[in-house]
C-alpha cells in the first residue's frame, strides 16, 4: 500500500481561520491533505479557504455536500474551481442527472479538475434513521445501490462508512475512489459517528482515503495524535505500509 499519511485527510471543522491554520500547520507532513467543510466555508468563504491552504498548501478536500437541482449544483462546482480542490462532495441522493451535471462541471477544469465524490449514507445514520426518512432498507444495501448509481453517473468515487467499503469495492471496482469517514482509533471518542472502524481496519477493508477529524483536532496535541494514527497503521501493515 502507499504511505498511510498521504491517505489521511484531516477534517478541520471550525469557524475560525486562526484555529484552522494552526491545526493545518500542526498536522502538515503527517497527513496527506486538509478537509474544509460547511462550518468553515459558511463562516469564512473562499477567502478563508485560501488563507488556510493557499497556492502551495496541502491538497484540499472541499466538502460542501452539494444537493440541489442539476443546474445549481453544476454552478456550485464551477464556482469552486478557482480554489483548485483535489476533491469535492455532492449528495448521491440528488440523483443521476445532478451527479452527471457535477461531473461535467468539474471536467470543464481540464487536467486540474477536482474529483467528485458522492456521499452515500452519512456515517451518523443507522438503519433506524433510514427508516425514519422512509428508506426501509438495510444500510449496506442502500450504500451499494447509491455507489453503483454514482459510478454510472460519471463521478469519481463515493464517501461511505468503513462498514461498507468492501461491498462497494466489490460492486464498483478497483479504480472507484472510496473516501471514508467514521474513523475512530481505539483510544478516541465515538462522538456522533455510528458506523465506525479504526484507521487500519478501514484501510485493510479497501478504503483509498480516510477522513479523520476530532480524534486529531480535539486532541490537546493534534500533531502527536496524527503521528500516533500513522504509527498504528504502520504497526498493522508492517513494512508494506
Ligand atoms: O462527506 C464527509 O466527509 C462525511 C460524510 C459522512 O458520511 N460522514 C462524515 O463524518 N463526513 C465528514 O467527515 C468528518 C468526520 O469528522 P470526525 O467525526 O470529527 O472524524 C466531518 O467533517 C464530516 O462532515
TrEMBL record:
Domain Orotidine 5'-phosphate decarboxylase: 7-229
Keyword Cell cycle: no
Gene Ontology MF terms: orotidine-5'-phosphate decarboxylase activity
Keyword entries, A-Z: Decarboxylase, Lyase, Pyrimidine biosynthesis
Catalytic-site annotation from UniProt: 63, 65, 68
SUPFAM superfamilies reported in the protein's UniProt record: Ribulose-phoshate binding barrel
Pathway: Pyrimidine metabolism; UMP biosynthesis via de novo pathway; UMP from orotate: step 2/2
EC number: 4.1.1.23
GO biological process, one term: 'de novo' pyrimidine nucleobase biosynthetic process
Annotated GO CC locations: cytosol
SMART domains: OMPdecase
EC top class named in words: lyase
Catalysed reaction, written as an equation: orotidine 5'-phosphate + H(+) = UMP + CO2
Residues involved in substrate binding: 13, 35, 63-72, 123, 184, 193, 213-214
PROSITE patterns cross-referenced by the UniProt entry: OMPDECASE
Record's function text: Catalyzes the decarboxylation of orotidine 5'-monophosphate (OMP) to uridine 5'-monophosphate (UMP).
Assigned protein family: Belongs to the OMP decarboxylase family. Type 1 subfamily.
Quaternary assembly: Homodimer.
Name listed for the protein in its UniProt record: Orotidine 5'-phosphate decarboxylase
Organism: Azospirillum ramasamyi
Amino acid at each position: 500500500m502507499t504511505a498511510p499519511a498521504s491517505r489521511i485527510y484531516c477534517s478541520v471543522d471550525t469557524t475560525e481561520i486562526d484555529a484552522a491554520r494552526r491545526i493545518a500547520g500542526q498536522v502538515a507532513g503527517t497527513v496527506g491533505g486538509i478537509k474544509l467543510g460547511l462550518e468553515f466555508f459558511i463562516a469564512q468563504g473562499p477567502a478563508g479557504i485560501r488563507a488556510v491552504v493557499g497556492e502551495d498548501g496541502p491538497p484540499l478536500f472541499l466538502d460542501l455536500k452539494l444537493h440541489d437541482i442539476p443546474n445549481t449544483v453544476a454552478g456550485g462546482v464551477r464556482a469552486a474551481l478557482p480554489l483548485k480542490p483535489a476533491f469535492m462532495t455532492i449528495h448521491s441522493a440528488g440523483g443521476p442527472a445532478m451527479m452527471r451535471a457535477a461531473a461535467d462541471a468539474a471536467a470543464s477544469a481540464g487536467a486540474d479538475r477536482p474529483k467528485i465524490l458522492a456521499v452515500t449514507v452519512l456515517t451518523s445514520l443507522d438503519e433506524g434513521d433510514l427508516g425514519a426518512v422512509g428508506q426501509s432498507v438495510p444500510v449496506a444495501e442502500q450504500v451499494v445501490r447509491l455507489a453503483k448509481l454514482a459510478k454510472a453517473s460519471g463521478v469519481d468515487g463515493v464517501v461511505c462508512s468503513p462498514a461498507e467499503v468492501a461491498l462497494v469495492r466489490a460492486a464498483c471496482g478497483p479504480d472507484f475512489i472510496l473516501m471514508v469517514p467514521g474513523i475512530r482509533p481505539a483510544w478516541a471518542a465515538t462522538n456522533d459517528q455510528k458506523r465506525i472502524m479504526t484507521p487500519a481496519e478501514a484501510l485493510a477493508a479497501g478504503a483509498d482515503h480516510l477522513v479523520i477529524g476530532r480524534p486529531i483536532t480535539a486532541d490537546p496535541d493534534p500533531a502527536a495524535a496524527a503521528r500516533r494514527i500513522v504509527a498504528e497503521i504502520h504497526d498493522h501493515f508492517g513494512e508494506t505500509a
